[in-house]
Amino acid sequence: MSMRLGDVKSAMFILECRFSGDYGKVSQVNMQSQNMNLNIDASPTADEKDKIRMNILARLQPKNHMLEEA
Fold first, then answer.
1. 12 or 64, higher pLDDT
2. Domain containing 21: what range?
3. What is the C-alpha separation between 14 and 2, in angstroms, rounded?
4. Are 25 and 17 in contact (CB under 8 A)?
5. Closest to 44 (Cα-Cα) out of 32, 53, 57
6. Is 12 part of a structural domain of the chain?
7. Sequence-ordered list of residues with C-beta below 8 angstroms from that of 14, at least 6 positions apart, any chain
8. Does some domain include residue 7?
9. CA distance to 25, 30, 46, 70, per residue, from 20 (Å)
């Protein structure tokens, strides 16, 4: 009823009282953590390095070709 009338505080109080496990205040926090790091050798091959280098050099070239002619 209080939610229909728009009274948020009373609706919150009712939910905290009736469903304290879901809507109540949490006093304990689960502090378990897991290490999800994977050891992967991601070093590129010589061909991949050349492709990366060519891609970078292509991006550094001027896009306006009229500058080269002048």
1. 12
2. 1-26
3. 9
4. no
5. 53
6. yes
7. 2
8. yes
9. 8, 18, 61, 77
Q: What is the C-alpha separation between 11 and 20, in angstroms, rounded? A: 13
The whole-angstrom distance between residue 70's C-alpha and the CA centroid of its chain comes to: 47
- For 10-47, what is each residue's pLDDT tens digit? 878 888 788 777 766 666 666 777 777 777 778 889 99
Q: What is the pLDDT of residue 46?
A: 93
Q: Report the alpha-carbon distance of residue 45 to residue 62 in Å, rounded.
A: 28
Q: Give me 6's structure tokens.
A: 């728009």
SS3 content of the chain, % helix, strand, coil (to 5): 55, 0, 45
- CA of 69: how far to CAs of 58, 61, 66, in Å? 18, 14, 5
**Structure tokens belonging to residue 68:** 């080269």
